Amino acid sequence: MEKTNEKITNQTKAIQLPLYNRLWFIMLMSAVIGAISFLSIYGFKILDPTYEEWLLQGGDLTQHYLGWVYYRKSEWQFPIGMIDGLIGNVKTAIMYTDSIPVLAVFFKLLSPVLPETFQYWGIMGLLSFMLNGACSSFLIHRFNKNGIFCIIGSILYILCPAILMRMFGHEALACHYIIILGMILWLYQDYKWKKKWQRYIMPAVLWGLLGMLSVSTHMYYIPMVYFFLLGSFITDFFKHKEISRPLFNFVSITVCSLFTMWIIGAFSINAAISDVGLGVTSANYNTLWNPAEYVGNGLSGYTVGGSTFLKPLPTFDGQYEGYAYIGFGIMTGLLISLTVIIINAVKSEGGFIKNIRNIFNIRRTWIIAFSIIFILAMFYAASPSGVLNDKKIYDIYYSENVLRFMASFRATGRFAWICDYIIFTAVIYALSRIKPKQIMTAALVICVAIQLIDIFPSIKSRRWYKQTYEINYDCLKDPRWEAAAEGCNKFVGLPYDQPDTYILEFTTFAYKHNMTINHFYVARPPFDDILAQYEKTMEELSDGKYDTNALYVFLTDEFIPDIKGLKVYKLDEFYIVKFPGQKDLLENMPEPEKTK
Length: 596
What we know:
The protein is of the alpha+beta class. Among the domains are: 42-121, no CATH class; 272-462, no CATH class; 481-578, no CATH class. It is 50% helix and 8% strand. A hairpin with a 2-residue loop joins strand 1 and strand 2. The longest helix has 21 residues, at 121-141.
């Protein structure tokens, strides 16, 4: 009877709760703000699923899109993430083209009903902004149930400078709602489940699902989420003397992550575990307050416009990967929070020191846990060397095995984003303690306004996405390329060693002419298999064995085999070889006139 009455009371309270304080409404409004923010910055045009030209302007964005189009054309196989025809006969997996596997698999399932040309990058960006808003408001609701406060606070997360820098260019790394979800699972670990078994099973299930989402979006999210898992272990152990629950969570996320990696093909190719760049793509210790500027067109490279209030600080080359500027609005929030804490401590009975000690004691476990995670994340982001501005302050000489492990996530600078969100959440929490609530809300509005003004140059720098683009080849300009491709279903570029610019243009050309290609830029490439394929190709050509349906393109004439009857044509800076028996429309075509 008592349980029934309690249930009725809770339902009555939920009905009486104002609309703007209901959690579903808070999350919905925050998602709407995320959508409005995205459309204001990036425009509507890129939402057109048949508009692919903006994705074929070179750089990482082109790599990601071409990975999808070749994955879509590949036959279904197991593991389900395998791609054919992108590196000749060598298979790769969708996760190694950074094409956001969870969306690639979903839209491949829908492929029969989709238009011939289909891109999901615009949709992905919109959803990411919306999810950033919804998840961040849910996070804020953990310690402040005021709906207006939660909705306004979510704006700081939606327009995190690091997100603006990554969206687009390396858009999978702009899905920061995954990082926020890691914090949510940590901060909501004391949620009162109705049944005892749910206290252990449900968190493990949620951590497992987060692991699957992380892996199927971008691998770098997995170690980031593990940082928050460590935080939950610390608070669970010291607050509740609980060990079994965090262990269940660890096993769940690890098993689910490995299973997902297996399903999408991570272990089905001879991929290199580590990559080059460790120590170069790190974070500078000034990154949190450094509004660095990176100039580009936003389509073929990272672009960020700096700050309205602060000047950029020096960094080492490659440390753009560790860009984690928090914004002047968040800095203002830190100042307001510290001022309020000091004033309250001074005014309260017992003296300043005693009150500060009491504040620490009440929240000791959380403060210590957050501090540990912050320090570890920042230390790893800067690893293996510590750099402040343009000066190296220390080097740590790890063993070869440790360095090899670290090199598996060689862009360590990205882990500074964990520190970003710890600071964001700490500021929001501190502001939420201000009373009365009118002053609390006013303080937050001031911080958000200052933040928007401060990062406006970065927002403005995204203007490139509102423009209209066409596919323009920088390297393949000769009009005879169309004739060269006639009758060919394979594009074979030789030798293996090719600049990324050539690789992307060759692949774009091959895609638009419905050809496979023998070489493509992927993360963790299976070097041994690729080199073996190249050597086999060169050996077969030397023996007079060739594919009459292939377009052979040589970067230099020194590798062209000496075969009777072959014809060589120079198009732009490349040599097109037509072997006996191949369709040849170039023979009677005059060379284009050279423009002065």
